Amino acid sequence: MITVTHHRFALREAFTISRGSKTHADVLTVRIARGGLTGWGECVPYARYGETLDSVAAQIASLQGDITRQALQTALPAGAARNAVDCALWDWECKKAGKRAWELANLPAPSPVQTAFTLSLDTPKIMRAKAAANAHRPILKIKLGTPDDMPRLEAVRLGAPKSTLIIDANEGWTPEIYTHLAPHLIRLGVALVEQPLPAGADDMLAEIARPLPVCADESAHDAASLPALVGRYDMVNLKLDKTGGLTEGLIARQAARDLGLGIMVGCMVGSSLAMAPASLLAQGADYADLDGPLLLREDRNQPLHYDVQGLHPPPPDLWG
User: Fold this and answer.
1) What average pLDDT does the segment 203-230 reach?
2) Which among 32, 60, 191, 245 is least surrounded, fewest beta carbons within 10 Å?
3) pLDDT band at residue 252 under the 50/70/90 scheme
4) From CA 232, how far away is CA 193, in angstroms rounded?
């Protein structure tokens, strides 16, 4: 039996990107009960990809209760619905086999991964204060994507002079803005810029110099989407809500490596249940951006553990 529940987690503070703000994380929790065992997974429906809570719940409700993880890959397209079900099936299979997820996937035992911490879009003054409050973190991800981003970026660098900076424009720049900003990004020690141009309007990235690595986010989904990105992007941001689960995520990770693309493993704003399978995908990645629970005021009853080493592997009473 497959059940779907809507959960709402309050954020510590409003989270803003170039497309808007949110004060809560709305997620769908999927539970699959068979043979006295229950596996669970989480997804975050994303309006940017035409998803709503209702549409994703309807996709999940269309499935047969005895569907297998293998059959799921063709029963639903890549996206949030397939992600939650796929991860729930991984969890159920682990409980049935009495093994951890990495054992079932024939992967090495995971280690803690250092994750970026995201500063949402705000005024330069506020962003500098937030950067200063998080200057102890080794990697800060900065949400930008407006025509007036330079004062914000300068302010963040002043607030956190030693942190590695990643910029996420969320498709908010034009080619002209990006070309103008690129030298300043280098001057301020930015390590990576994520999705500077809108997906579908990013061909010019293949025609201009990329003086610092450019990472595809909205342009990258499952493994099949990756070959077209070669020559335009240097890295891809793999998120389970885009790949449609850990099963496809592992395939996409290998595909990216085979294509010579660097790898970031990211997330939507969700709970520890969503980050748990992503932490396996992040093993060996160039960057991890799995800070969703750090942005929440409340979390699952068995939250993931974060410390100076980063995000630790999930305990078995949470997932996998």
Assistant:
1) 93
2) 191
3) very high
4) 13
DSSP symbols for 70-97? HHHHHHS-SSHHHHHHHHHHHHHHHHHH
Q: How confident is the model at residue 108 (pLDDT cuts 50, 70, 90)?
A: very high
Q: What is the pLDDT of residues 294-320, one digit of tens each?
A: 999 999 999 999 999 999 999 999 999
The rounded distance, in Å, linking the Cα atoms of 161 and 30 is 42
Pairing label, strands 2-17, 20-34: antiparallel
pTM of the predicted protein model = 0.95
Q: How much is the CA Rg of the chain, to the nearest whole Å? A: 19
Q: Give the sign of the dihedral formed by CA 201, CA 205, CA 208, CA 214.
A: positive
Letter for the amino acid at 18? S
Task: Report the distance separating Cα 267 and Cα 288, nearest Å.
Answer: 9
Provide DSSP, the chain. Answer: -EEEEEEEEEEEEEEEETTEEEEEEEEEEEEEEETTEEEEEEE---GGGT--HHHHHHHHHTS-TT--HHHHHHHS-SSHHHHHHHHHHHHHHHHHHT--HHHHTT-PPP--B-B-EEE-S--HHHHHHHHHHTTTSSEEEEE--STT-HHHHHHHHHH-TTSEEEEE-TT---HHHHHHHHHHHHHTTEEEEE--S-TTS-GGGGTS--SS-EEESTT--SGGGSGGGBTTBSEEEE-HHHHTSHHHHHHHHHHHHHTT-EEEE---S--HHHHHHHHHHTTT-SEE---GGGGBSS--SSPPPEETTEEPPPPTTT--
Confidence of residue 232 (pLDDT cuts 50, 70, 90): very high
Name which of 210, 207, 215, 153 is nearest 185 in CA terms. 153
Number of neighbouring beta carbons within 10 Å of residue 121: 23
